Amino acid sequence: MILSMTGYGKATVVFEGKKITAEIKSLNSKSLDLSTRIAPAYREKEMEIRNLITSSLERGKVDFSLWVEKGEGTTSTPINGALADSYRKQIRLISERYGIPEPEEWWGLLLRLPEVLSRDEAVAELREEEWTLVRQAVEDCIAQLMDFRRQEGMALQRKFEEKLDNIARLLQSIEPYEKGRTEKIRQRIIENLESIKGVEYDRNRLEQEMIYYIEKLDINEEKQRLTNHLKYFRETMETGHGQGKKLGFIAQEMGREINTTGSKSNEAEMQNIVVRMKDELEQIKEQVLNVM
After folding, report:
1. How far is Cα 113 from Cα 89, in angstroms, rounded to an integer?
2. Could you read off the pLDDT of 22-54 as tens digits, one per residue?
3. Which terminal CB of the chain, N or C, has fewer other CB atoms within 10 Å?
4. What are the CA-CA distances from residue 271 to residues 173, 207, 265, 278, 290 (Å)?
5. Do 36 and 64 form a contact (C-beta atoms < 8 A)?
6. Strand partners, 4
7. Which run of H or of E encompasses 15?
C-alpha cells in the first residue's frame, strides 16, 4: 500500500488553564524538509519534537506548530514595544539602503517577528507533567497526519489502478491495426513499383527489403516491455511504503515505450491510441509526485 505525502493533523491538551495545540501539515517534496514554530516554553524540547517527527515522516515539506492560548484567568502576554520599535527602525534603514519599499501593513508584520509577543521575564521551568501532556499532543497530531496520508494513499492507488487498466486496454486495442498494416505496406510498395513503367525489380530483393522495413516498424518488443512495466508498477505499489521515487522511474520507462510505439505507428488510428495512452500516463506522473 502506498502513502501520500499530503497530510494534516491537530491535537489539543489543557494544562492548568492553558490550551496547548500541536498542528502539523505536509506537502510533497523530494526529501524531508521540516520547519517548526514552537512556543518559547517548549523550545528546550525542540530536538525531541524533531526526532518524533522525523522518525515517522520520511519525506515531504512538513510544517509543525506548537502554541499556547491562555485561559481567562491568566495574565495576557504583553507586547514588547521596545523590540517592535527596534525592528521597525532596522527595516526602514534597510529599505533606504537598498531602495526597497517599506511594508504597507506594519502592525501585522511586527507582531509576527520573534519575541515581540513574548514575556520580558524568563520562561518558567517546564514541569515534567506538563511536558508529558504536550508530548502526547505532538504524538497524536503526527498519528492523525499518518492516518490522513494512508487515506490519501488509498485514493491515489485506486487512481493509479484505473489509469494502468486504461493503458492496458488501449495497448490491446492497437493489435487489430497492427496486424493489417504490414500487408497494407507491402501492397502499397508493390503498387507504386508497378505503376512506374519500364522499371523491373528483383522480387527476392524486394522481399528482403520488405522484411527489413517491417521489422523496423514492429512494436512487439515495446508492447511486451510496456506490459511488464505495468505489472511492475502494480507490484511496487504493494511493497510497503517509500515507493514514490521508484514509481516515478517506472513511469518514465513506460513513457519511453509509449513514445517508441508512437514513432513506429504509421497509421492514424494507432497514433490516436498512443496519444490517449500518453494522456493516461501523464496523469500518473503528476500524481506520483505525491507518493511517499
Report:
1. 13
2. 999 999 998 899 999 999 889 999 999 999 999
3. N
4. 12, 27, 6, 11, 30
5. yes
6. 291
7. strand 7-15
Torsion over CA of 142, 143, 149 and 152, rounded to 10 degrees? -130
**Which letter does DSSP use for residue 75 in this model?**
P
Which three three-digit cell numbers place residue 197?
513503367
Tell me the residue range of the domain where 104 lies. Answer: 79-118
How many domains are contained in the chain?
2
Q: For residue 16, how many other CB atoms are within 10 A of its CB?
A: 10
Which of 12, 13, 26, 23 lies closest to 49 in space, CA to CA? 23
Contact 65, 22 (CB under 8 A): yes
Q: What is the DSSP string of 85-128?
A: HHHHHHHHHHHHHHTPPPPS-HHHHHHHSTTTTS-SSPPPPPPH
pTM above 0.85, yes or no: no
Residue whose C-alpha cell is 508497378: 194
Rounded Cα distance between 252 and 167, Å, is 14
- Indicate whether 160 belongs to any domain: yes
In a domain, 271, yes or no: yes
H-run or E-run covering 159: helix 128-173
- CB-CB contact of 275 with 14 (8 Å): no
The C-alpha cell 517534496 sits at: 29
For residue 243, which amino acid is it? Q
CA-wise closest residue to 90 among 126, 74, 114: 114
Phi first, then psi, for residue 289 (nearest 5°) are: -60, -20
Q: Cβ contacts of residue 236 below 8 Å, gap of 6+? A: 243, 246, 247, 250
pLDDT in tens, 237-258: 988 667 888 999 999 999 999 9
d(CA 7, CA 145): 5
Q: Look-up: residue for cell 521508484?
A: 246
